[in-house]
Amino acid sequence: MVQGSILLVILLLGIGFIVLSTSKWKLHPFISLILAAYGIAFAAGMPVLEIGKTIRNGFGGILSYIGIVIILGTIIGTILEKSGAAITMADTVLKVVGEKRPGLAMSIIGYIVSIPVFCDSGYVILSSLKRSLAKRTKSSSVMMSVALATGLYATHTLVPPTPGPIAAAGNLGLENSLGLVIIVGIIISVITMLAGYFWATISGKKYKSNEDFEELDINYEDIKNQYESLPSPLKAFAPIIVPIILITLGSIAAFPTHPFGDGTLFTIFSFLGKPINALFIGFLFALSLLPKLNEETLSGWIGEGLKSAAIIIMVTGAGGALGQVLKSTPIGDYLGITLAKYHLGIFLPFIIAAALKTAQGSSTVALVTTSALVAPLLSSLGLASEMGRVFTVMAIGAGAMTVSHANDSFFWVVTQFSGMDVYTAYRSQTIATLVQGLVTIAVVALLSFIFV
């Protein structure tokens, strides 16, 4: 195989191709990642008869343990959206936080909803609620819009079972430590959410959107009345909370100290804590949200979730194929030796993810691609331990939110559903994601210094 500095050139050309093909040429990320995998394999001199096998093994390897998890998580999100459970969750948070802090309420609502629901869909679902609450409390629409958007963004890139963080954890060999990733992600993403809320309050004092001058055409009660009946808070939260609790308990059961012993209790929690089992139980709870058990819900709603999951699975599998190619060539070893002398440590995954996110727009693609790229470098970066890998996922997540601008579909969802012009959106929403990313990597770096 090829050796020396030419390997770095090959890698940079591969990354450049992914960025250009997805952002400028509008090629689907799946095709882009597969083409990059083939290109890097041929250029690095991998034996020709090994290339197809390597790509196949990389694609199938990562999906063998997270494919069904992604499908179940996406179906749960679709059911939460269509059953009105997201509105129930929002209503519950409002009662707890109070209407005197509407911006914080929107941040928390977004934070919770985006764990199973993609941030784009979450914003669309909650935009009417946001407008109604802004008018009712006489709050700035810009503040409310950015608070909701940044709350959604915090968990979208940091907390499984959102597909991006799951894929990153899988690429970094954390499929059996997902509970730990969830715990750390929840802790860090709270700070990320608050950073976004902080910038939202500043933006709300400085900028206006069209919504600030519009009359409200639908109030909060009308929003709720669009559904035949809303589920109870317990039923609404269960599909999200139960799997997270089970995965966490499964991780605790696996601690070296064996807090649950090594008998029946250990077996039960270990079984229930496997992500695929925990998400399946969450799916069963989600079925209780279906208003009717008929073709529309059992086939239509679930089928819609499957269609959404298909794209995520394809991109995730393609990222796994690229990662396997990188592991099978000397690129990872050479890059690790080259970068080790710069002592970038935890900041390298952040920089790569931020560059990819800013260039091509998709947080999920940035998470999948970056985790595949840095997996072979963990030892040279001093991040090969379990906690090192967990914080690497967090660093990649921080980069994958830095920054959301015109090439990101979420940016346009926020502008279109908040009445902000592009200039205002750049100064409020885009800067908010920059603040979130920088604050998050600062927290990750501090924690990794203590625990790694």
TrEMBL record:
<feature type="transmembrane region" description="Helical">
    <location>
        <begin position="31"/>
        <end position="49"/>
    </location>
</feature>
<feature type="transmembrane region" description="Helical">
    <location>
        <begin position="363"/>
        <end position="384"/>
    </location>
</feature>
<feature type="transmembrane region" description="Helical">
    <location>
        <begin position="275"/>
        <end position="293"/>
    </location>
</feature>
<feature type="transmembrane region" description="Helical">
    <location>
        <begin position="179"/>
        <end position="200"/>
    </location>
</feature>
<keyword id="KW-0812">Transmembrane</keyword>
<dbReference type="Pfam" id="PF02447">
    <property type="entry name" value="GntP_permease"/>
</dbReference>
<dbReference type="InterPro" id="IPR003474">
    <property type="entry name" value="Glcn_transporter"/>
</dbReference>
<feature type="transmembrane region" description="Helical">
    <location>
        <begin position="61"/>
        <end position="80"/>
    </location>
</feature>
<feature type="transmembrane region" description="Helical">
    <location>
        <begin position="334"/>
        <end position="356"/>
    </location>
</feature>
<protein>
    <submittedName>
        <fullName>GntP family permease</fullName>
    </submittedName>
</protein>
<keyword id="KW-1133">Transmembrane helix</keyword>
<keyword id="KW-0472">Membrane</keyword>
<feature type="transmembrane region" description="Helical">
    <location>
        <begin position="431"/>
        <end position="451"/>
    </location>
</feature>
<feature type="transmembrane region" description="Helical">
    <location>
        <begin position="305"/>
        <end position="322"/>
    </location>
</feature>
<feature type="transmembrane region" description="Helical">
    <location>
        <begin position="236"/>
        <end position="255"/>
    </location>
</feature>
<feature type="transmembrane region" description="Helical">
    <location>
        <begin position="141"/>
        <end position="159"/>
    </location>
</feature>
<feature type="transmembrane region" description="Helical">
    <location>
        <begin position="108"/>
        <end position="129"/>
    </location>
</feature>
